[in-house]
Amino acid sequence: MNFQMLLLVSVFGGLGAVLRFVVDTIIKRMKPTIFPISTLVINTLAAFAFGCFVMIVRNVHPDVYTIATSGLLGGFSTFSTAINEIFNLARDKHWTQFVIYLFTAIIVPIVGFILAVYLMGFLPR
Questions:
Q1: How many CB atoms lie within 10 A of CB 37?
Q2: How far, CA to CA in Å, does 115 sit from each of 23, 68, 76?
Q3: Would you say 77 is a known binding-site residue?
Q4: Measured between alpha carbons, how far is 85 from 105 in angstroms, rounded to an integer?
Q5: 44 alpha-carbon distance from chain centroid
Q6: Would the CA dihedral through 111, 22, 38, 89 be positive or negative?
Q7: Over the stretch 9-48, which tens digit does the pLDDT of each residue have?
């Protein structure tokens, strides 16, 4: 790892965080709800994009792959927020939303990743 790579990952991580903030704000304004749909959407989009990068960029441009996945997608996705929202739903006794989100927060992003890998596997390189 060199300083330039560290700087690029940091910059793209910041851009990912800003992108997450924008998407989160848009979704929350469109659909205010107890259920944390914005984090679910963000993490699913990040997982799908990660699957695309795995299939398209990983072996061709390893530095671009690192900058995009560790930087941009690392800043965009937020598993820690999902864990906090799961905890808050349980703490506030929103049991139905708690159970649904507990499973969807993990399964839906994984399905997004698998879907991207599947779809990207059939695209010409």
A1: 17
A2: 22, 19, 19
A3: yes
A4: 10
A5: 6
A6: positive
A7: 999 999 999 999 999 999 999 988 999 999 999 999 999 9
Confidence bin at 125 (pLDDT 50/70/90): low
121 among the known binding-site residues?
Answer: no
Residue with tokens 């994984």, as numbered in its chain: 110
| pLDDT tens digits along 43-92 | 999 999 999 888 888 778 889 989 999 999 999 998 888 998 999 999 99
**Residue 43 and residue 27: Cα distance in Å, rounded?**
13
Backbone angles phi, psi at 122, to 5 degrees: -105, 0
The answer to whether the beta carbons of residues 47 and 113 sit under 8 Å apart is yes
100-75-44 Cα angle (round to 5):
30
Helix (H), strand (E) at residue 28: helix 3-30
**At 96, which amino acid appears?**
T
Over the chain, what is the mean pLDDT?
91
**Identity at 22, one-letter amino acid code:** V
pTM for this prediction: 0.87
